[in-house]
Design brief:
This protein is of the alpha/beta class. It has helices at 17-30, 43-52, 60-69, 86-97, 112-118, 123-128, 148-160, 175-184, 201-207, 215-221, 239-253; strands at residues 5-9, 36-40, 74-79, 101-105, 133-138, 164-168, 189-194, 225-228.
Length: 257
């Protein structure tokens, strides 16, 4: 039996589900001999999907249990998270308690090479918005993996120079700090890039929109005109390949049967 690949994302209930479909199709093309399955790590989203008969992506432990019942002995769990933070470590704990022999695929940004591969994925956006500030809008985290945002800032500045401005929904740099930096740098126009795998609720309600507290409204109020990228990282060319590289590494670590 070929080793199944279980892709595990945080999840979303918004139109951004199309990003997962896009990524899944890319991965299936790269691994046609493997069964590719999806699961969501967010308990809230799993229960919401179940209650509304939406796509109904199950929790990862349920997928692994079903694979065990089907006679599989091992599986790859590919994290579709950006960094090895809270959700990834929960996933590792689930893997440890699974009846299957699990090989973990690392999150998108897990090594310096991953950051190097990521930067060119933003070239098309940067070239399309040449005279604008590029605002990287991240979620933030209380996990020690928060330092990854500053590694990201370093690598993006190496590639795109002083046009890059980073801000987080949770933590620092804050939107207010970012807006002041944009103004001090002389930009009067900016492009907001959601640095999230999918452009879901946070993008729709906090980064953009007419609410006075949205980043878009705050930037406009500060005299900075804005444009937005209305999709997550998962839709960018090259992002799927970074995940595929991690899947290949995880498959290679599997024990021969």
């Amino acid at each position: 039996m070929n080793i199944p690949i279980v892709i595990t994302a945080f999840g979303t209930t918004s139109r951004a589900l199309s990003t997962y479909a896009f990524l899944g199709e890319h991965i299936r093309k790269r691994f046609p001999e493997h069964e590719v399955l999806w699961s969501f790590s967010s308990r809230f989203i799993v229960s919401k999907n179940s209650s509304t008969n939406a796509l109904g992506h199950p929790a990862p432990e349920n997928v692994l249990q079903k694979l065990n019942e089907q006679g599989y002995k091992q599986a790859v769990i590919q994290s579709a998270h950006l960094w090895p933070g809270h959700e990834f470590h929960k996933l590792v704990q689930i893997a440890h308690t699974s009846p299957l022999n699990i090989s973990m695929g690392m999150p998108l940004l897990s090594s310096p090479l991953d950051y190097e591969k990521l930067c060119p994925c933003l070239d098309t956006i940067a070239n399309r918005h040449k005279n604008q500030a590029l605002i990287i809008g991240g979620h933030g985290t209380s996990h020690p993996a928060w330092t990854g945002y500053f590694a990201l800032d370093h690598f993006l500045h190496k590639r795109f120079g002083k046009r890059i401005f980073l801000a987080l929904l949770k933590g620092s740099p804050t939107p207010a700090e970012m807006i002041q930096q944009v103004k001090n740098s002389g930009f009067d126009s900016a492009c907001i890039i959601p640095f999230m795998l999918v452009a879901g609720r946070h993008f729709e309600q906090e980064l953009t929109g007419t609410d006075p507290d949205s980043w878009q409204s705050q930037l406009t109020g500060a005299g900075i005109s804005t444009q937005t990228i209305d999709h997550g990282l998962g839709m960018l060319e090259g992002i799927g390949e970074i995940f595929c590289d991690h899947i290949r590494e995880a498959v290679e670590r599997c024990s021969p049967l």
